[in-house]
Every structure is written in structure tokens, then in C-alpha cells.
Request: fold
Amino acid sequence: RPAQPLSPSNLGGAKAIPGDGLDEDTAKARGTAIHLLLEYLPTVPAADHGALAATLIPDATLRADVLPEALATIAAHPALFTADTLTEVEITAELLGRTMRGTIDRLIITPDRVTAIDYKTNRVIPARPQDTPDGILRQMGAYAHALAQIYPGRRIDTAILWTREARLMPLPPDIVSASLSCTTIP
Reply:
């Protein structure tokens, strides 16, 4: 059987700082819901946000938990949620001698720069980029590596959008590439 494609989000390493306080299923449900809201709410007028949120997230309790966080994130970074940015961008590239497939939450492409932004819904957020869990840094390193192949000659930047605080954290290229270089694939 041929080797399965690598996934940037499954390259090993921690994904959260201890103390998040949520069980894995709850954390995944919150993350999926917030991702859906950040993908679709910016495409409709504000007056339609409630109705669209109800369609996307039928569970009223979950919706009440995540909708304010998503709306605050969009309000804090309106330039990230314009029609000029791309959302849920599928990429395929070579990584560590294998095919890698992944999805970038938000991609901004300009003539000289490409910026990949990943949404993270963790409750405990690192104060500094270097305190970001290795699994997240490896994921962003994989995106940067892939985008450099797809967009040669352009500057590649990565950032995490921590939705809990609506905080955009640019990641220095050296720390994402160093984390990726520590990845070993069985």
C-alpha cells in the first residue's frame, strides 16, 4: 500500500498548552464551529449573522458559546476577512520526501508576499510565539515550506489567529522552520 499523504496538523508535538480545561471532544466541537463561523459569516451582511450561525451550528448551547468569540475575532481583524483573502485553501506539496496535503484557514496573496493564517481556539494562549506548542509550529512550518514551493520568489509569512483573545500572532520564520526540521516521519 502506498504511503499516505502527510498532514500538516499531524506532524507530532503538542497542540495545546496544559490547562485548557476542555475534554478533547468538546474542544474539537468548539474548534469546528468557530472555523465554520469564521469561514462563512464574513460572506453575508451583519444582519444575517444570527440566521446563518443557526444554520451552521444547530446546537443552541454550542452556538451561544462560540458565536461571540467568532464575531469578536472578525471585528478585531476586518482586513483578514475581506473578499481579497482566500479561505480554507487546499494545498499539496512535497514535504520530507513525501506528499503533503493540508488546508490553510486563511491565505493572503500579494505580488511579493504570501501569508498563511491558522485559527486556533485554544483557551490557554502562549504569550510569545516561541511558547507556541511544537505541533502548531510544525504545522505552520509545513505550510510555509509548501507555500515556498507553490510561490517561489515571494516572502512567506505565517501567523496564528488565537480566537479566544482575537489576537493575531505572527510567527518568526526561524522558529517554524526549526520546529519543522525536528519532525521525523516513521
In short: Strands lie at 86-95, 98-109, 113-120, 155-162, 167-171. The first strand starts at residue 86 and ends at 95. The CA atoms of residues 59 and 117 lie 27 Å apart.
